[in-house]
Amino acid sequence: MPEGPSILILKEEVQQFAGKTVIEVYGNSSIDFDRLKDKTILSFKTWGKHFLICFEDFTVKIHLMMFGTYRINEQKENAPRLHLGFSNGEINFYTCLVKILEGPVNQYYDWSEDVLNENWNPKKAKISLDKIPGEKICDAILDQNIFSGVGNIIKNEVLYRCFIHPESLVGKIPHEKIDELIAECSIYSFEFLYWKKKFELKKHWLAYSQKECKRCNLPLIKKPTGKKNRRSFFCTNCQQLHS
Ligand SMILES: [Zn+2]
What distance in Å separates the CA atoms of residue 168 and residue 192, rounded to the nearest whole number? Predict the structure, then answer.
């Protein structure tokens, strides 16, 4: 599943089409394709895992969900959800959600919630966490309205770095640990971005899909946790359960 940093890489890869006019548009999504034809792309934006193609009075939102993919200047065998053709190339999106957002894009998104955005606001995340003391941290950290862009890999790595057990209750975790965790969500996301661009992300994983805790030389527990039931990898020896 693409996490926030992967969507930021997509944004960098499509910069060749910023300011270009859409000369061909089709796909098997249900949006009104005529809206896009002969329109000029003003910019590309991201909010967490949302990829946004901004036109003058509307925005096309692409959500790659669990299995979404894209191709730039090439096509896959299956039909795209959305194909955009330009004088200098093409973008194709597959197995994703496509939606048109009418009007200014700023009315739909709070950029301060995105851990990779220049307007990311850790204080706001703290206020949001203070409102959900009974939630498990493994669910809270995946809440896209608190930590937009954080996915399951980032969740596992951040909790491991901060020595926090994924089933800890938000309200029971000491304040300084919460501050550290909030900071790491953004720091690790930028490291994820840096490593992914160098095609070496996996070798830096300390918890995600790992079998052993490198700090304790003990087996890591692997199990679905929280209401979201997403897979967690953790060490019961060095990751403290706050409950
Ligand atoms: Zn350990």
Answer: 24
